[in-house]
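Example complex used in Figure S2.
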Amino acid sequence: MRIVTWNVNSIRARQERLLALLARHRPDVVCLQELKTAAAGFPAAALAEAGYHAAVHGQKTYNGVAILAREAPAEVATGFGDGGDESQARLVTATVGGLAIASAYVPNGKEVGSEKWAYKLAWLDRLAAWVRRRPPAPPLVLGGDFNIAPDARDVASPEVWAGSVLCAPPARAAWEALLAAGLTDAFRLHHDEGGHYSWWDYRQLGFPRNDGLRIDHVLLAAPLAARCTGAFIDRDERKGKLPSDHAPVVIDLA
DNA sequence: ATGGCCAATTTTATTGGA
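Predicted assembly (254 residues):
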């Protein structure tokens, strides 16, 4: 079973690239982030034509997440359902093929110390609490843009980003809390070295210089980590005209 | 070549992204 997560930075701007990605990798499940459109603007018909059902949690202009699947997603839910703020479309969950799938768009946080930074950390606390309280079955696949570079290997220019919202200790502690909740970074099961990134700034020749960060991840519950046969970042997707600033992460489960 | 921000909108500036 092949699962992809990708921050598309507007589903409408990326529709043709998404269809090409589906044809190239033939994934069973895709977690999408930053749709930047309400559900009415989601290209459901074109994706159905390509063979994919969609569970969409859209929002005008900002955020927006979705799960695509060859099999119809069941038990679709949005948000944490914890009584907290649900005004930002950042989490959609569903059951597909005996797996619990979640597509998450973690807040960026703008600047350490800002109001958005506090929102990011609170949102990550809610995410970890949600992971801890959900039942062990079906096992969880949590894919998304985490806006966290877990360690120095995940940053091309660590000194530049050290104090940023992607690398600051509280963000990395929130990542560790997700691991402590029983999840495993699928990519790190198969690659120990640094130099693999999933995001490059559009500005300042970020991609040609490979000045990137690894901030998009697939986290797996233990039974699925044991089944993960491969993981890679589809760096080629960042090339060419009108790319997203993020590259997709692809994982395979036996 | 992988190339000097991009996308959406309350659009000809502003906001948010990371």
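Residues 2-253 of chain A form a domain with the Deoxyribonuclease I; Chain A fold (CATH 3.60.10.10). Chain A has one domain: 2-253.
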